[in-house]
Write a structure and sequence with these properties.
The protein has 314 residues and is of the alpha/beta class. It is built from ten helices and 14 strands. The protein has a ten-stranded mixed sheet, sandwiched between helices. A four-stranded mixed sheet has the order 3-2-6-7. β12 and β13 form a beta hairpin.
Length: 314
Protein backbone atom coordinates (compact mmCIF):
# COMPACT_ATOMS: atom_id res chain seq x y z
CA UNK A 1 0.00 0.00 0.00
CA UNK A 2 1.26 3.45 -0.95
CA UNK A 3 0.45 6.37 1.35
CA UNK A 4 0.61 9.96 0.10
CA UNK A 5 0.87 12.95 2.45
CA UNK A 6 -0.22 16.45 1.34
CA UNK A 7 0.00 18.98 4.16
CA UNK A 8 -0.48 22.13 2.06
CA UNK A 9 -3.25 21.45 -0.47
CA UNK A 10 -5.04 24.09 -2.49
CA UNK A 11 -7.83 24.78 -4.90
CA UNK A 12 -6.22 25.32 -8.30
CA UNK A 13 -8.18 27.90 -10.28
CA UNK A 14 -7.19 28.60 -13.88
CA UNK A 15 -8.50 31.26 -16.23
CA UNK A 16 -7.59 32.52 -19.70
CA UNK A 17 -6.95 36.18 -20.60
CA UNK A 18 -5.92 38.02 -23.73
CA UNK A 19 -3.10 39.65 -21.77
CA UNK A 20 -1.08 39.16 -18.59
CA UNK A 21 -0.14 42.82 -18.21
CA UNK A 22 -1.74 46.21 -17.73
CA UNK A 23 -3.99 47.61 -15.03
CA UNK A 24 -7.73 47.85 -14.53
CA UNK A 25 -10.41 45.27 -15.26
CA UNK A 26 -9.45 42.35 -17.50
CA UNK A 27 -12.04 39.91 -18.79
CA UNK A 28 -11.19 36.24 -18.40
CA UNK A 29 -12.68 33.06 -19.83
CA UNK A 30 -12.40 29.28 -19.43
CA UNK A 31 -12.57 29.36 -15.62
CA UNK A 32 -11.66 25.93 -14.28
CA UNK A 33 -11.20 24.46 -10.79
CA UNK A 34 -9.33 21.35 -9.66
CA UNK A 35 -7.85 20.12 -6.38
CA UNK A 36 -4.16 20.92 -6.08
CA UNK A 37 -1.10 20.37 -3.97
CA UNK A 38 1.67 18.02 -5.09
CA UNK A 39 0.43 14.94 -3.25
CA UNK A 40 -3.12 15.31 -4.54
CA UNK A 41 -1.73 15.54 -8.09
CA UNK A 42 0.30 12.37 -7.49
CA UNK A 43 -2.82 10.60 -6.28
CA UNK A 44 -4.77 11.69 -9.37
CA UNK A 45 -2.15 10.14 -11.65
CA UNK A 46 -1.96 6.95 -9.57
CA UNK A 47 -5.71 6.48 -9.91
CA UNK A 48 -5.35 6.52 -13.69
CA UNK A 49 -2.59 3.92 -13.30
CA UNK A 50 -4.93 1.77 -11.15
CA UNK A 51 -2.43 1.73 -8.31
CA UNK A 52 -3.76 0.98 -4.83
CA UNK A 53 -3.00 3.85 -2.49
CA UNK A 54 -4.50 6.16 0.11
CA UNK A 55 -3.87 9.77 0.92
CA UNK A 56 -4.17 12.19 3.78
CA UNK A 57 -4.37 15.96 3.64
CA UNK A 58 -4.88 18.89 6.02
CA UNK A 59 -7.78 21.18 5.13
CA UNK A 60 -9.65 24.09 6.69
CA UNK A 61 -12.61 26.41 6.19
CA UNK A 62 -15.02 26.55 3.23
CA UNK A 63 -12.19 25.94 0.75
CA UNK A 64 -11.27 22.83 2.71
CA UNK A 65 -14.84 21.53 2.48
CA UNK A 66 -14.81 22.25 -1.22
CA UNK A 67 -11.67 20.13 -1.59
CA UNK A 68 -13.40 17.28 0.23
CA UNK A 69 -16.39 17.56 -2.12
CA UNK A 70 -14.17 17.67 -5.21
CA UNK A 71 -11.99 14.73 -4.13
CA UNK A 72 -15.03 12.64 -3.29
CA UNK A 73 -16.43 13.43 -6.74
CA UNK A 74 -13.10 12.31 -8.24
CA UNK A 75 -13.21 9.08 -6.23
CA UNK A 76 -9.97 9.88 -4.43
CA UNK A 77 -9.04 7.57 -1.52
CA UNK A 78 -8.25 10.32 0.97
CA UNK A 79 -8.72 11.07 4.64
CA UNK A 80 -8.78 14.58 6.09
CA UNK A 81 -7.27 16.44 9.03
CA UNK A 82 -9.32 19.53 9.88
CA UNK A 83 -7.08 22.45 10.83
CA UNK A 84 -7.96 26.02 11.78
CA UNK A 85 -6.76 28.12 8.79
CA UNK A 86 -8.63 28.40 5.51
CA UNK A 87 -7.13 26.27 2.74
CA UNK A 88 -5.39 28.37 0.09
CA UNK A 89 -6.29 29.02 -3.54
CA UNK A 90 -3.76 29.25 -6.38
CA UNK A 91 -5.00 31.20 -9.41
CA UNK A 92 -3.18 30.70 -12.73
CA UNK A 93 -3.82 33.07 -15.62
CA UNK A 94 -2.96 31.86 -19.14
CA UNK A 95 -2.77 34.14 -22.16
CA UNK A 96 -3.25 33.31 -25.82
CA UNK A 97 0.51 33.07 -26.41
CA UNK A 98 0.98 30.19 -23.99
CA UNK A 99 2.50 32.35 -21.23
CA UNK A 100 1.11 32.18 -17.72
CA UNK A 101 1.41 33.60 -14.21
CA UNK A 102 0.29 31.97 -10.95
CA UNK A 103 -0.90 33.83 -7.85
CA UNK A 104 -0.36 31.82 -4.66
CA UNK A 105 -2.23 32.66 -1.48
CA UNK A 106 -0.44 32.21 1.83
CA UNK A 107 -2.69 30.61 4.45
CA UNK A 108 -2.76 31.70 8.09
CA UNK A 109 -0.41 29.76 10.40
CA UNK A 110 -1.39 26.51 12.05
CA UNK A 111 -1.99 26.70 15.77
CA UNK A 112 -0.16 24.53 18.30
CA UNK A 113 -3.34 22.45 18.55
CA UNK A 114 -3.35 22.00 14.76
CA UNK A 115 0.26 20.75 14.85
CA UNK A 116 -0.45 18.24 17.63
CA UNK A 117 -3.53 16.93 15.81
CA UNK A 118 -1.71 16.57 12.48
CA UNK A 119 1.24 14.72 14.01
CA UNK A 120 -1.10 12.32 15.82
CA UNK A 121 -3.15 11.63 12.68
CA UNK A 122 -0.02 11.09 10.57
CA UNK A 123 1.31 8.43 12.95
CA UNK A 124 -1.98 6.55 12.63
CA UNK A 125 -2.02 7.00 8.85
CA UNK A 126 1.36 5.28 8.43
CA UNK A 127 0.15 1.99 9.88
CA UNK A 128 -0.04 -0.72 7.22
CA UNK A 129 1.87 1.16 4.52
CA UNK A 130 4.60 -0.30 2.31
CA UNK A 131 5.63 3.02 0.74
CA UNK A 132 5.25 6.51 2.24
CA UNK A 133 5.35 9.43 -0.20
CA UNK A 134 5.77 12.86 1.40
CA UNK A 135 5.10 15.50 -1.19
CA UNK A 136 4.97 19.28 -1.33
CA UNK A 137 5.42 22.28 0.93
CA UNK A 138 4.23 22.80 4.49
CA UNK A 139 1.96 25.70 5.55
CA UNK A 140 2.95 28.47 7.96
CA UNK A 141 3.08 27.32 11.54
CA UNK A 142 3.99 23.75 10.62
CA UNK A 143 7.31 22.61 12.14
CA UNK A 144 10.07 22.37 9.53
CA UNK A 145 11.15 19.00 10.95
CA UNK A 146 7.74 17.36 10.50
CA UNK A 147 8.89 15.42 7.42
CA UNK A 148 12.07 14.28 9.18
CA UNK A 149 9.98 12.95 12.08
CA UNK A 150 7.71 11.09 9.68
CA UNK A 151 10.63 9.54 7.81
CA UNK A 152 12.28 8.33 11.01
CA UNK A 153 9.00 6.86 12.25
CA UNK A 154 8.32 5.18 8.91
CA UNK A 155 11.79 3.65 8.77
CA UNK A 156 11.25 2.20 12.26
CA UNK A 157 8.09 0.60 10.85
CA UNK A 158 9.92 -0.85 7.83
CA UNK A 159 8.23 1.50 5.34
CA UNK A 160 10.03 2.65 2.19
CA UNK A 161 10.16 6.46 2.21
CA UNK A 162 10.00 8.90 -0.72
CA UNK A 163 10.57 12.64 -0.17
CA UNK A 164 9.62 15.37 -2.66
CA UNK A 165 9.73 18.71 -0.86
CA UNK A 166 11.54 22.03 -0.74
CA UNK A 167 13.22 24.47 1.61
CA UNK A 168 14.06 23.72 5.23
CA UNK A 169 11.63 20.80 5.41
CA UNK A 170 13.46 19.14 2.51
CA UNK A 171 16.90 19.73 4.03
CA UNK A 172 15.83 18.41 7.44
CA UNK A 173 14.00 15.53 5.76
CA UNK A 174 17.22 14.47 4.00
CA UNK A 175 18.94 14.30 7.38
CA UNK A 176 16.50 11.50 8.27
CA UNK A 177 17.76 9.47 5.26
CA UNK A 178 14.68 8.80 3.11
CA UNK A 179 15.12 5.91 0.70
CA UNK A 180 14.26 8.13 -2.28
CA UNK A 181 14.68 11.91 -2.60
CA UNK A 182 13.21 13.65 -5.66
CA UNK A 183 14.15 17.36 -5.73
CA UNK A 184 14.48 19.71 -8.69
CA UNK A 185 17.40 22.10 -9.27
CA UNK A 186 16.07 24.80 -6.95
CA UNK A 187 15.09 22.39 -4.18
CA UNK A 188 18.43 20.59 -4.10
CA UNK A 189 20.22 23.96 -3.95
CA UNK A 190 18.76 24.47 -0.46
CA UNK A 191 20.56 21.27 0.60
CA UNK A 192 23.83 22.09 -1.14
CA UNK A 193 23.97 25.74 -0.11
CA UNK A 194 24.67 26.99 -3.64
CA UNK A 195 22.83 27.33 -6.95
CA UNK A 196 22.76 24.42 -9.37
CA UNK A 197 23.38 25.95 -12.80
CA UNK A 198 25.72 23.86 -14.94
CA UNK A 199 25.45 20.24 -16.00
CA UNK A 200 28.39 19.35 -13.76
CA UNK A 201 26.55 21.03 -10.86
CA UNK A 202 23.57 18.75 -11.47
CA UNK A 203 25.64 15.56 -11.59
CA UNK A 204 27.53 16.62 -8.48
CA UNK A 205 24.23 17.34 -6.70
CA UNK A 206 23.17 13.71 -7.19
CA UNK A 207 26.59 12.53 -6.02
CA UNK A 208 26.30 14.75 -2.93
CA UNK A 209 22.95 13.22 -2.01
CA UNK A 210 24.44 9.74 -2.40
CA UNK A 211 27.36 10.63 -0.15
CA UNK A 212 24.88 12.08 2.36
CA UNK A 213 23.30 8.64 2.74
CA UNK A 214 20.35 8.83 0.31
CA UNK A 215 20.33 5.45 -1.42
CA UNK A 216 18.23 6.56 -4.41
CA UNK A 217 18.67 10.29 -5.18
CA UNK A 218 16.79 11.63 -8.22
CA UNK A 219 17.14 15.12 -9.69
CA UNK A 220 14.28 16.24 -11.93
CA UNK A 221 15.08 18.83 -14.59
CA UNK A 222 11.82 19.40 -16.48
CA UNK A 223 12.24 19.16 -20.25
CA UNK A 224 15.93 18.33 -19.80
CA UNK A 225 15.07 14.98 -18.23
CA UNK A 226 16.31 13.62 -14.91
CA UNK A 227 19.36 12.17 -13.20
CA UNK A 228 19.39 9.28 -10.75
CA UNK A 229 22.20 7.88 -8.69
CA UNK A 230 23.09 4.62 -6.98
CA UNK A 231 26.04 2.83 -5.47
CA UNK A 232 27.56 -0.52 -6.40
CA UNK A 233 30.42 -2.64 -5.09
CA UNK A 234 32.63 -1.13 -7.77
CA UNK A 235 31.64 2.53 -7.49
CA UNK A 236 30.23 4.65 -4.70
CA UNK A 237 28.51 7.17 -6.97
CA UNK A 238 27.04 6.09 -10.31
CA UNK A 239 24.86 8.75 -12.00
CA UNK A 240 22.56 8.02 -14.95
CA UNK A 241 20.92 10.60 -17.21
CA UNK A 242 17.35 9.73 -18.22
CA UNK A 243 16.07 11.62 -21.26
CA UNK A 244 12.35 11.33 -21.85
CA UNK A 245 10.44 11.96 -25.06
CA UNK A 246 10.03 15.43 -26.53
CA UNK A 247 6.36 16.44 -26.53
CA UNK A 248 4.39 19.59 -27.21
CA UNK A 249 3.67 21.03 -23.77
CA UNK A 250 0.16 22.21 -22.97
CA UNK A 251 0.76 22.96 -19.27
CA UNK A 252 3.99 22.13 -17.41
CA UNK A 253 2.38 22.41 -13.96
CA UNK A 254 2.16 18.99 -12.35
CA UNK A 255 4.57 17.17 -14.68
CA UNK A 256 6.91 16.51 -11.77
CA UNK A 257 4.02 15.11 -9.74
CA UNK A 258 3.09 12.67 -12.49
CA UNK A 259 6.78 11.80 -12.81
CA UNK A 260 6.68 10.90 -9.11
CA UNK A 261 3.47 8.92 -9.59
CA UNK A 262 5.15 6.95 -12.38
CA UNK A 263 8.10 6.22 -10.09
CA UNK A 264 5.77 5.06 -7.31
CA UNK A 265 3.94 2.84 -9.79
CA UNK A 266 7.24 1.28 -10.84
CA UNK A 267 8.32 0.66 -7.25
CA UNK A 268 4.93 -0.81 -6.39
CA UNK A 269 5.17 -3.14 -9.40
CA UNK A 270 8.65 -4.33 -8.40
CA UNK A 271 10.43 -2.74 -11.39
CA UNK A 272 14.18 -2.21 -11.26
CA UNK A 273 15.33 1.40 -11.03
CA UNK A 274 15.99 1.81 -14.74
CA UNK A 275 12.51 0.69 -15.77
CA UNK A 276 10.84 2.62 -12.95
CA UNK A 277 12.61 5.78 -14.11
CA UNK A 278 11.50 5.14 -17.69
CA UNK A 279 7.90 4.84 -16.54
CA UNK A 280 8.33 8.02 -14.48
CA UNK A 281 9.73 9.97 -17.45
CA UNK A 282 6.92 8.80 -19.71
CA UNK A 283 4.31 9.71 -17.08
CA UNK A 284 5.71 13.22 -16.75
CA UNK A 285 5.65 13.64 -20.53
CA UNK A 286 2.04 12.50 -20.68
CA UNK A 287 1.06 15.05 -18.01
CA UNK A 288 2.68 17.82 -20.06
CA UNK A 289 0.11 17.12 -22.78
CA UNK A 290 -2.77 17.84 -20.38
CA UNK A 291 -4.19 21.15 -19.17
CA UNK A 292 -4.60 19.78 -15.62
CA UNK A 293 -1.94 18.61 -13.16
CA UNK A 294 -1.82 14.89 -12.45
CA UNK A 295 -3.76 13.91 -15.57
CA UNK A 296 -2.02 11.19 -17.59
CA UNK A 297 -2.92 8.74 -20.34
CA UNK A 298 -1.86 5.10 -20.10
CA UNK A 299 -1.65 4.64 -23.92
CA UNK A 300 0.56 7.75 -24.12
CA UNK A 301 2.81 6.48 -21.31
CA UNK A 302 3.28 3.11 -22.98
CA UNK A 303 4.10 4.88 -26.25
CA UNK A 304 6.53 7.36 -24.69
CA UNK A 305 8.45 4.67 -22.78
CA UNK A 306 9.86 3.49 -26.11
CA UNK A 307 11.59 6.88 -26.57
CA UNK A 308 13.30 7.05 -23.15
CA UNK A 309 17.11 7.03 -23.39
CA UNK A 310 19.87 6.59 -20.79
CA UNK A 311 23.43 7.86 -20.53
CA UNK A 312 26.04 7.24 -17.82
CA UNK A 313 27.41 10.57 -16.56
CA UNK A 314 30.45 9.62 -14.48
Amino acid sequence: MIGIVTLNPCIDKSVRSSTLGGTGFINVTDTHYITGGKGLNVSRALRTLHTTHRGITAIGGPNGQRIIDMLEAEGAPCSYIHVTPETRTITTVFDNNGDWVAYKETPAPWTAEDVALVERKLNIFMEGLDILCISGSVPPGCPKDIYAKMIRKAKEMGITTVLDASGAEFVQGLAAYPDYAVPNDEEVAAFLGYAVNTWDDKVQAVEAMLRAGISHPILTMGKEGSLFGYSTEDTCCQVIFVHGPTVETVNPTGCGDSFLAGLLYGLDQGMDMKNAMAFAAASGASDARSADAGVVSVPEILKYIEDVQYDIQN
